[in-house]
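Board notes (copied after class):
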Amino acid sequence: MLTWNLGDLFESVADAVATRTAVVSGDVRLTYAELDQRATRLAHVFATHGIGPGHHVALAMRNGHEYLEAMLAAFKLRAVPINVNTRYTADEMRHLLDDADARLVVHDADLAGRLDEAASDRPRIERGA
């Protein structure tokens, strides 16, 4: 039996309306095709970190196109994106990451200090500068 996930659904939508605007975030405007391509590239990066079906990927990121790219990248691999509140203290982040069994943390650059403390034992990908 064929099973679909949100990554598959997004790819179908991106194929159908490739040139339409998918997201506007600050000065960045991405079409569905561009968003899909960016998410696919990031999914390949996740895979090099051993991420696959059922693995948890923590997203310590503010709202924006980077968050959508990371979430879709996780969906494409049938992984589970876990939202991390960017206002959490290092202790709160550590607790959430441990409880969620996050195998990878994707984060905004300005959260690196807190994540040095909270996630020094986990692979991390820094997004944005």
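Comment from the instructor: The beta strands are 21-25, 28-31, 56-60, 80-83, 102-108, 124-127. Residues 32-48 form the longest helix (17 residues).
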